[in-house]
């Protein structure tokens, strides 16, 4: 049997280090590269002989894929593959594409909760003040206990946020396309319409996948329903929100603030954005998923997708 080549073209140094001890199955070669991932030429050079690609941030566009003549499967380290691979090229050539669901439900949920506290207690603002030797105790923050949290999307991460929020003493309402699936497991969560959720919740956390149905779903009409002391949290995808409308709400202080972990074009849109100058916004660079536990879990799921494909039982296929 010929060697089956797996290439990991955009690994972190930490990931490369722990993969050194991963026992390679017979007949399999794993090549891990930590070099720059911002050029098609570099990706092609690394991946052109791959039977399988395990990847995270690199963009496997049509040109890169066309150069990978042997490629049979691409396993993405994440869930939403939008913008990371040319699916049309994969379908045309019969290349299977997998993702790694459920690798970081708890970690992402913890980050969403952390952003709620960071915004409500204005942590970033006070941190900057202390570093500038400005010992000011104003303005006061908001206490979260007893407030209503609205969760938009009640998948695995949304449910994890609900569990944590209920434990913290928040009231939880949620919106889901099929709420009847969750009622028995979450009797303390009341399912409402989107309009009700946005008009009555003091904290709103988004946990939806980005697709044709959800892109721009959080529009100006919904944002205008938000309460003056409301906080919007997004650890899902930037494309869910009409960002121009959100900027207006934050700039005009129609809402208390926002905690954002995701941005269009991996943050390139922030360079000219008014968000950078607003004190009522806490921003992190798409790191909600990022913990030592989730990184290892994600890579192992990604590798097993490839091993399962090789064994004739593919898992976590993206349609």
Automatic annotation (TrEMBL):
Residues 31-316 form the D-isomer specific 2-hydroxyacid dehydrogenase catalytic domain. Residues 113-288 form the D-isomer specific 2-hydroxyacid dehydrogenase NAD-binding domain. Keywords: NAD, Oxidoreductase. InterPro entries: D-iso_2-hydroxyacid_DH_PdxB, D-isomer_2_OHA_DH_cat_dom, D-isomer_DH_NAD-bd, NAD(P)-bd_dom_sf. It comes from the Bacteria. Pfam families: 2-Hacid_dh, 2-Hacid_dh_C. Belongs to the D-isomer specific 2-hydroxyacid dehydrogenase family. This is NAD(P)-dependent oxidoreductase.
């Amino acid at each position: 049997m010929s060697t089956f080549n797996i290439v990991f073209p955009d690994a972190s140094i930490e990931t490369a280090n722990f993969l050194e001890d991963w026992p390679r199955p017979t007949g399999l070669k794993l090549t891990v590269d930590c070099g720059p991932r911002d050029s098609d030429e570099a990706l092609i050079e690394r991946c052109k002989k791959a039977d399988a690609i395990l990847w995270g941030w690199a963009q496997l566009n049509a040109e890169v894929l066309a150069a990978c003549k042997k490629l049979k499967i691409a396993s993405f380290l994440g869930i939403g593959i939008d913008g990371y691979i040319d699916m049309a090229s994969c379908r045309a050539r019969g290349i299977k594409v997998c993702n790694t669901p459920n690798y970081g439900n708890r970690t992402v949920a913890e980050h969403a909760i952390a952003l709620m506290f960071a915004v409500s207690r204005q942590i970033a603002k006070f941190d900057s003040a202390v570093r500038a030797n400005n010992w000011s105790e104003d303005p006061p923050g908001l206490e979260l206990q007893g407030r209503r949290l609205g969760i938009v999307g009640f998948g695995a991460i949304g449910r994890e946020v609900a569990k944590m929020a209920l434990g913290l003493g928040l009231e939880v309402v949620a919106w889901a396309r099929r709420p009847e699936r969750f009622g028995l497991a979450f009797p303390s969560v009341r399912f409402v319409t989107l309009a009700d959720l946005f008009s009555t919740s003091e904290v709103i956390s988004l946990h939806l996948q980005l697709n044709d149905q959800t892109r721009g779903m959080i529009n100006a009409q919904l944002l205008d329903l938000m309460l003056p002391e409301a906080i919007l949290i997004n650890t899902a995808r930037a494309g869910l929100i009409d960002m121009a409308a959100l900027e207006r709400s934050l700039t005009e202080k129609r809402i208390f603030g926002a905690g954002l972990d995701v941005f269009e074009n991996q943050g390139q849109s922030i360079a000219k954005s008014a968000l950078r100058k607003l004190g009522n916004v806490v921003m992190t660079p798409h790191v909600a998923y990022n913990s030592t536990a989730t990184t290892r879990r994600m890579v192992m799921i990604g590798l097993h997708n490839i091993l399962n494909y090789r064994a004739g039982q593919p898992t976590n296929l993206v349609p």
